[in-house]
Structures are given as C-alpha cells and as structure tokens.
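Journal club prep — side note

Before the paper discussion, L.F. wants everyone to see what a predicted structure for a comparable chain looks like in token form. Sequence:
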Amino acid sequence: MTPERFVLALQKAVVHDNLAVYAELFRGTPVDKAVDPHWVRALTLFNGLDEENKHVLIEIICHTMVETTANLLGILDGGCPVAGMEGDVSLQVDGRPIGGELQELFLELSESA
C-alpha cells in the first residue's frame, strides 16, 4: 500500500464515514432516547441550533477529526514529538515503512476535498 492510498483510506474511514455517523446521530436521535449524559447535552445543544448553525457544528466536528488525524500522522512521521516518548515510531504495511510524509499528504488531501 502506498502512502497516498493509506491516507486516502484513512480519510474515508476516519473523516467521511465517521462524520456521516455523527451527523446521522445528531439529526436522528431523539434526546429522550439518549442515555449517555454527554449525548443528552450534545443533542440538546444541537437541537437548539438553527439549520445554519447545525451545519457549522458539523463542520467543526469535521475540522476536529481532520486536525486530530493529522496530528497523529505527524507523530507517526516523526515530525511531532510527544513528551515522554522515547525512541522512533514508525508505521509499516506488510513490513514496509510508509511514514515520513503521511501528515502532509493527509492535509493536502483534506484541503482538496
């Protein structure tokens, strides 16, 4: 698997697919059916917004997913150090390293989406 195919698959699984799940949960879950106090508060907030602001909130969630994924890829690439972590971190597919530019590729892909 090439780095480009990896970040494309990651973007689909982590950002697109999960964002669709969150959007469906927010739009399709009645507050009285939620049991987790976090979701009750989140659904109450979401339901109190007009349509434009609901869209903005979903965009914020998307941006958070992209930035978090990019940060993790930066750690795997070795460009974003983590306090207290010693040694090198690498990502391999079938024994072949694919890191080094994953964060940059992912952010480029996300900007063009």
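L.F.'s comment for the group: The mean pLDDT is 92. Keep this in mind when we get to the figures.
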